[in-house]
Design brief:
alpha/beta, five-stranded parallel beta sheet, Rossmann fold, 166 residues
Length: 166
């Protein structure tokens, strides 16, 4: 079985994330979407458990080969434990590549059996990031088209609750 891991902070999940997850699910037998718990980012809008739940609600029913998890250690070790052969990462622009390339080389060094697959984002999502969604929403902009429909109301509500601008 060919298992891939789609890691991220997903704070919150966007349609860009969901697009990469759905496309990866067509290429691998199983895709594990893993919320990486980053202790260097203590100001998340959603807890790791909430992000897992939002992702689970976002993945369409017809995508049957995805599971969602969370992890707070090294991604290369997580992939080894899960028997994953690949990490799938989305790239929005050339500026994303340098950081992701460095991460890919580090993961390969830590787990030589692991490959990193870079998927270019759909052109409709090239500008989209969780940070942008939060910022636009905090200033009262409509972000519903950037978020999975199944969870957009919950995400918008939380961002507005946390926003100092509204």
């Amino acid at each position: 079985m060919r298992i891939a891991v789609c890691p991220g902070s997903f704070d919150p999940i966007t349609n860009g994330h969901l697009d990469i997850i759905k496309r990866a699910s067509k290429l691998f037998d199983k895709v594990i979407v893993v919320v990486m718990v980053n202790f260097h980012k203590p100001n998340s809008y959603f807890t790791a458990s909430e992000r897992v739940e939002l992702i689970e609600r976002s993945i369409p029913e017809e995508v049957k080969n995805c599971e969602v998890d969370m992890y707070g250690g090294l991604l290369a070790e997580y992939c080894k434990k899960k028997g994953a052969c690949a990490i799938v990462k989305g790239l929005r622009a050339v500026s994303d590549f340098e950081y992701e390339f460095q991460q890919a080389l580090t993961n390969k060094h830590l787990n030589p059996e692991l490959e990193t697959i870079f998927m270019t984002t759909d052109q409709n999502n090239m500008f989209l990031s969780s940070s942008l969604v939060k910022q636009v929403c905090e200033f009262g902009g409509d972000v519903t088209e950037f978020l999975p429909a199944a969870v957009s109301e919950d995400i918008i509500k939380r961002i507005k609750e946390r926003s100092p601008n509204i």
